[in-house]
Amino acid sequence: MKRLFFVLSAILLLLAFSACEQKESAAGPQTTRAEPTTSAEPTATVGGYMVTANEGQRKNEYPYVLQTENSVWYLASADLDLMGEEAFYAGLEDILQYMEADMADARKALTGRIPEDIPPVEIRTDFSDQDDDAERYGAKYNQPFNLIKLFHGWQTVKRSLLHEYVHYLTFSCAGKKTPYGFYGEAVAEYVSMIVCENRMCRSDQFGFADDLEQIESLRAWGVWDEEKDNLDYRKYVLCESDAFARGLYDDLIYVSVGQNVCTRTVGKRLPARVNDLSYGETVSLALYLIETYGEETFLDRWDLPGDQVAAAFLNRQGPSARKMAGLNGLSESELLTAWAAWNVEQCARLGIGMDQP
Ligand SMILES: [Zn+2]
After folding, report:
1. Ligand 1 center to residue 133 CA distance, Å?
2. In this structure, are residues 178 and 303 in contact, taking their beta carbons and an 8 Å threshold?
3. Is a pLDDT exceeding 90 seen at residue 333?
4. Cα of 156 to ligand 1 centre, how many Å?
5. CA 52–ligand 1 middle distance (angstroms)
6. Can you give the pTM of this predicted structure?
7. Which domains are assigned to the chain?
8. Which residues keep their CB under 5 angstroms from ion ligand 1?
9. pLDDT tens for residues 241-270?
């Protein structure tokens, strides 16, 4: 089933693109808060918001600014040249019709874990992919500079923006912050893709809107929600994890949530560390932990580094429960083995799975 294999591989790469990493961008601006200096005169109106001339920093590179309640957008001149003004603003307007409600949902999902007053997030477009990070990512929350940078184009923005906004909330705004790697990515994906409606992402059917052939494949694997005519993201991550476990992705090179370049082989279909999981597997593991220990416990521990996750959760079970579950040590591989068995059960119960190779 090579065709199906490559189809889902393409999705994997797309998901990996929404990663963030700590590396500071040399090209990044020196700023910590989105406080634009703009002229009073609007140059255009997009989605009901004014576009004004940037009179502040890097105004040659970003000549225009658009401010909403929750964001300050710096619009790159290179992107307006690349797309043409009409297409650029049409794409921006499309995003803006969903963005505020999506961001409000994310903040609501994190009530009690982030401050009530969240400053607007700074967002910069780079659809010309001038930043080195564009090679690896679809979008990136840059923590040292406290801004989100968007690459490639508006379709990628729809897939990535809410994920990056959750990073902004949990890496920067929260008192107790998520670390890089497993927990940072698990929380960003869980909140943006499972808890939130994520209108931006769903409006484009997770990037599949124009690809009926791929939708047919996803339907055949049991991960397409017929009623909503959209991807069922929860089922999708179970399917992706199942495909890894069954060897359908052997030798595929992917970037893990720990930002490691990883691959699986016949004798090593489960990684040894949670930080070596793919993005989809990370969400599946998060769902397992939430189902087993509760969402509150899962989110309460979001400051744990990857190498402490297994011990923290396995220790929670008493000795008898651990014995019944066949757990004897406190290793990451134990946790991953228990999760993998759960994932198999879920796929069998829900009728999810790609065909055997
Ligand atoms: Zn991320």
Report:
1. 13
2. yes
3. no
4. 14
5. 30
6. 0.88
7. 2-16+200-350 (no CATH), 22-176 (3.30.2010.30)
8. 19-20, 185, 188
9. 999 999 999 999 999 999 999 999 998 999
